Amino acid sequence: MTPFFALLRRDLRLSVREGGGVGLALGFFALVATLVPLGVGPDMLLLSKVGAGILWVGATLAALLSLDRLFQADYEDGSLDLVALSPLSLEGAAAAKMIAHWLATGLPLTLLSPVLSVLFGLPTGAMLMLAASLLLGTPAVSAAGAIGASLTLSLRRGGLILPLIVLPLLTPAVIFGTGMVVEVQTGLATGAFGFLAAFSLATVLLSPFIAAMAVRLNLAG
Amino acid sequence: MIASLTAEKLACTRGTRRLFEGLSFRVTAGQALALEGANGAGKTSLLRLVAGFLPQAAGRVFVTENGNEIVEPEERGRFIGWLGHHDALKASFTVSEQLAFFSKLYSAPSVGGIAAGTSPVKTGEERRAALLEQVGLARQAELPCRYLSAGQRRRLGLARLLLTARPLWLLDEPFAALDVDGKGLVARLIALHCGQGGMVIAATHEPLGLGNESLKL
Amino acid sequence: MFDWLFRYANPARFLGLSGAVLPWLAAVTVLTIGTGLYLGFSAPPDYQQGRTVLIMFIHVPAASMATVVYLSMAVASLFSLVNRHILADVAARTAAPIGAVFTLLALATGSLWGKPMWGTWWEWDGRMTSTLVQFFLYLGYSALWNAIEDETKAARICAILALVGAVNIPIIKFSVDWWATLHQGESIVSGHVAPVFLGPLLTMMGGYFLLFLTLWLVRIRTMIVERRARNLMGAEA
After folding, report:
1. Residue A132's closest CA among A31, A52, A25, A188?
2. Is C73:C97 a contact under the CB 8 Å cutoff?
3. B114: confidence class by pLDDT, cuts 50, 70, 90
4. Which residues from C are below 8 Å from B18, CB to CB?
């Protein structure tokens, strides 16, 4: 098993064993999906119009929950030093952690979304498209989140700074992701899929390099 | 195998403080160097500088391998076995799981390396078991790390050092929080490592034995 | 010991230079903005918007500056990362609050301009939305700077954030315009600017940019002098 997969597996195991992993993200996602109708009223017609957007934002926020510990935990207990000295490059390590994060948050959130779509009365077509857009877009959330996490890893209470930094960067993902669902609802082709795919791909490819740079700066600090 | 680690006129700045400057020394194969100095004098910073985490403010530090000078921090890193203040242990992982992780992360050899005089082993698992035996953690193999004492955590760190078989050991207060047996183990392993041609630089208040060099910061 | 001297040799030269340039820069700024305002007032009232079109001369340049300042921050950040020059660190850090104020000005004046036109204090059109998102980019940058204790580390870390943000800005703008078109058919506030308005508008844009440069220089100088004072007061170098 190469060092890359060893780190990936370890991070997955940690997210299952230690708190703040899959369960938390899914729970938060479901909670948002429950609270909004309570705030907005049970008008299914209205809810079906806003559902895609609410669920997209809810999923993004849920995915961000566990991000601040992505690098911070390893930084605090000295594991990051050992990873830096290992045969695995810091870029590889960042990539492994980013992928592990997506597997533990983005993917489960995507799989839960059809269930929550029911709460908003989304028709089947929209429901499926929402799941597809989340599948395509949540990697960008993990990627941008990894960048934010690497920048804030030394902050004791960086908790709220991370979403403040990352969410503006994710505006295109939210826009194009929900745009994909709008396509189904209006029947017009808008190219949302292509834009989201490009955005996700670019973020995912660039993130390990940027995160590694930030990790190096922090290790030197 | 590396022949030596050389530092030439090293200077280090943390924030706005100049910790040390004009520092030069060399450690050759089989040698151990003790770093002495008050807390805050820069022992840990020097270790981190040698490890390549911290850039130097001035001077050079390099490893000599087969006549080549390796200056790049990230290339130096593959020669280094690090035992720092923090143990890098995950609370929910058992001792053997933790060691297995390091084994895979470092692509540790299953046989050979600078293992300490054990008979040839057949698999990585056997080697790890033998190492745990050697550091006195055989009984704790299935214990989650959250239940380990400070001394046990350090022993696991030593097992990791042996496992990853890196020639240059950088140890930050290796004797801290250890009982007499523990300290004896550390001293023995350091002696063994140097005896096999390895090198050790340790920040410590205690004597390393071996009639070695020391550097005061 | 010589490091200390070297570190301030360049900033000292900078202080000298900027001190000489500043009065002229300030004068040209006042002149340009004054001219822009005059041209604006002397232009005929817009047939649709009447006199309220004047707010456009305050609002549109401010919205542009929100982006221009961020890009300037990004350029300074690039120098900060590559050259590790202290002047670059200071430049990046001081640009942020100025940019944030321009952004707020754009949002406030946009709202004022919009009320007579839209009937509401806010509309989610392309420019306003982009400006709002950029406001958060500024907030995040400043928050990160303030949260990291080591100044040099803060400079480098925030430099990465500024560069990532700068690369994102065109993407954000594109996606927001795409979104506005998707949901409203057409961006409300964009469109042709009558030639008679172009003159004052461009003049104001130039004036705002000069204003930014003036304020920036003042803030950089202040920060450099502050650091010197701190060092004289015994902060260890």
Report:
1. A52
2. no
3. very low
4. 3, 236-237
pLDDT at B1: 67
Q: What is the DSSP letter of A185?
A: H
A vs B, Cβ pairs < 8 A, gives 69
Alpha-carbon separation of residue C79 from B13, C74, C88, C90, C146 (angstroms): 21, 9, 6, 11, 20
- Domain of residue C158 covers 2-232
CA–CA separation, B70 and B62 (whole Å): 5
Domain count, chain A: 1
Closest chain C residue to A166, measured at CA: C140
Beta bridge partners of B199: B168
Tokens of A18: 């230690």
* Residue A35: domain span: 3-220
CA angle A195, C104, C132 (to 5 degrees): 20
Q: Is B16 within 8 Å of chain A by CB? A: no
Burial class (CB in 10 A: 0-12, 13-18, 19+), C185: exposed
Q: DSSP label at B144?
A: B
Q: Is the pLDDT of residue C193 over 70?
A: no
Categorize the per-residue pLDDT at B65 as very low, low, confident or very high, splitting at 50, 70 and 90: confident
Taking only the tens of pLDDT, chain A with its 221 residues reads 699 999 999 999 999 888 767 888 999 999 999 999 999 999 999 999 999 999 999 999 999 988 988 999 999 999 999 999 999 999 999 999 999 999 999 999 999 999 999 999 999 999 999 999 999 999 999 999 999 999 999 998 767 899 999 999 999 999 999 999 998 888 888 889 999 999 999 999 999 999 999 999 999 97
For chain C, what is the domain count?
1
* Domains delineated in chain B: 4-216 (3.40.50.300)
Q: Is residue C237 part of a domain?
A: no
Please state the φ and ψ torsions of residue B68, each to the nearest 5 degrees: -90, 145
**What value of ipTM does the predicted structure carry?**
0.92
- Selected for mutation to probe chain B from A13, A16, A85, A217 (highest B CB count within 10 Å) is A85
C198 touches chain A (CB under 8 A): no
Alpha carbon distance C139, C96 (integer Å): 9
Angle, vertex CA C187, rays to CA C186 and CA C192, nearest 5:
100
- Measuring CA to CA, how many Å separate C160 from each of A34, C92, C155? 37, 11, 9
